[in-house]
């Protein structure tokens, strides 16, 4: 009976993953930290910024989705997670972005990771605020 319950639990877990559209072939490219997005495109792509910006955007193009999926933009400041943003992916070549308000005194090293629904790392971009 215990084995039967374990098998049911295992099958339910596998089914749940498929329901969320997790695709092993997802790829993240064109990872860009930018001050604005216009026409679904970053307006600039710098590796360092002054800390007096009000907000920054992180743009990514996600390829390889065979069905609807979710990716996460995870923002870090000096090694500490400060935001986690879920984003829908609805086609094989999907452009998406997240926005992060930048608080006063936010100088230091920043990075944004792109992860799939299973937390697999798809890409990362680092930058500095000075």
Order of helices and strands: HEEEEEEEEEE
User: Which fold name fills CATH's third level, the topology?
Assistant: Immunoglobulin-like
- As laid out across the biggest beta sheet, the strand order is 4-10-9-6-7
Give the structural class.
mainly beta
What's the story with the biggest beta sheet? Answer: 5 strands, mixed
Number of domains as seen in the coordinates: 1
**Gyration radius from CA atoms, angstroms:** 18 Å
**Overall CATH architecture:** Sandwich
Q: What is the average of the pLDDT values?
A: 86
Domain DUF2914: 71-128
Keywords: Signal
Protein name: DUF2914 domain-containing protein
Pfam families: DUF2914
Characterization of the model:
The chain is mainly beta. The chain has one domain (2-129): Sandwich (Immunoglobulin-like). The protein has one helix and ten strands; from the N terminus they run H-E-E-E-E-E-E-E-E-E-E. The chain has a five-stranded mixed sheet, with no helix packed on it. The chain is globular, with a radius of gyration of 18 Å. Pfam families: DUF2914.
């Amino acid at each position: 009976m215990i084995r039967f319950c374990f098998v049911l639990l295992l099958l339910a877990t596998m089914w749940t993953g498929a329901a969320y559209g997790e695709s092993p072939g997802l790829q993240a490219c064109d990872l860009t930290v930018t001050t604005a997005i216009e026409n679904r495109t970053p307006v600039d792509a710098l590796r360092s910024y002054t800390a007096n910006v009000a907000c920054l955007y992180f743009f990514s193009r996600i390829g390889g989705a065979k069905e609807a999926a979710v990716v996460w933009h995870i923002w870090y400041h000096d090694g500490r997670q400060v935001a986690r943003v879920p984003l829908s992916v609805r086609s094989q070549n999907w452009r998406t972005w997240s926005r992060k308000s930048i608080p006063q005194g936010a100088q230091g090293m920043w990075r944004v990771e792109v992860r799939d629904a299973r937390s697999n790392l798809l890409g990362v971009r680092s930058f500095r605020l000075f």
